[in-house]
């Protein structure tokens, strides 16, 4: 595991964007696993800026996102598809049919199977970007009794609903369920980049050096052979 300590959020975003950009320059057909939430916004802004300057080309790149809210169609402004369009896909030359997220409006069981089959067909993920939830979740793999292997539909915890209310105006509007990539697709990614910012010192420490337990889903990342953590937490 490599831990890169950044000076601040901007520095963290630039360093993470540099690593993603190196991946795309070296392997233009990379399959990038992407995340939503506040943490990656600065990374996506930086990638879009470098794209504008002609430094990076996404024309052959494929993306698979970690998760999507259940019940929201892709054109819902609160969907993660809309988030990705606003922050990255709409700003760079990635082909829309090369961008993949679970469909929130599909029948969950069939959609989960479709998503796993899709990731397998793409040959797995080359570089997976992750954020860290306040309760240690990655994707929407919430604390529980077991690490869930495949893409599955989850009930969001009260913690996660509260944390995501900022995007919806109030807690009541946050969807209660989500479809998330499972641990197998995440752990089989060739490289993982975990970006952690702000007020998450305790959960970051528990994830990186505490016991490996499904109670702290991110703790399984300790077993990944190529994990880079970039954080602005001293
Ligand atoms: C989002 C996702 C979540 C977030 C996590 C941290 O696609 O998978 O696991 O990465 O909730 O969110 P922020 O970055 O908003 O603190």
3D structure, described in words:
- With 234 residues, the chain is of the alpha/beta class.
- It has helices spanning 9-26, 41-52, 80-89, 108-121, 158-168, 183-187, 201-209, and strands at residues 2-5, 31-34, 62-65, 67-69, 99-100, 127-130, 152-155, 177-180, 191-196, 227-231.
- Helix 7 links the parallel strand 9 and strand 10.
- 42% of the residues are buried.
- The mean pLDDT is 96.
Question: What is the mean pLDDT?
Answer: 96
Distance between the termini: 17 Å
The rough form would be described as: globular
Gyration radius, to the nearest Å?
16 Å
Number of helices: 7
By DSSP, the count of extended strands is 10
Ligands, deduplicated: fructose -6-phosphate
List keywords for this structure.
7-stranded parallel beta sheet; 34% helix; 3-stranded antiparallel beta sheet; binds fructose -6-phosphate; alpha/beta; single chain
Write the layout of secondary structure elements.
Blueprint: E1 2-5, H1 9-26, E2 31-34, H2 41-52, E3 62-65, E4 67-69, H3 80-89, E5 99-100, H4 108-121, E6 127-130, E7 152-155, H5 158-168, E8 177-180, H6 183-187, E9 191-196, H7 201-209, E10 227-231
Parallel strand pairs: 1-10, 2-3, 2-6, 3-5, 6-9, 9-10
Antiparallel strand pairs: 4-8, 7-8
Residues 35-39, 66-67, 131-133, 137-139 line the site of fructose -6-phosphate (F6R).
